[in-house]
Amino acid sequence: MSNYNRVFLVGPMGAGKTTIGKLLARGLKLGFADSDSEIESRTGADIAWIFDVEGEEGFRNREESVIDEMTLLDHTVLATGGGVVMRNANRRVLASRGFVIYLHATLDEQIRRTRGDRSRPLLNGKDPEATLRELFALRDPLYREIADHVIDTDSSSPKVIAQRLLAQLP
Ligand SMILES: Nc1ncnc2c1ncn2[C@@H]1O[C@H](COP(=O)(O)OP(=O)(O)OP(=O)(O)O)[C@@H](O)[C@H]1O
Ligand SMILES: O=C(O)C1=C[C@@H](O)[C@@H](O)[C@H](O)C1
Ligand SMILES: [Mg+2]
Question: Is 117 among the annotated ligand-binding positions?
Answer without folding.
Answer: no
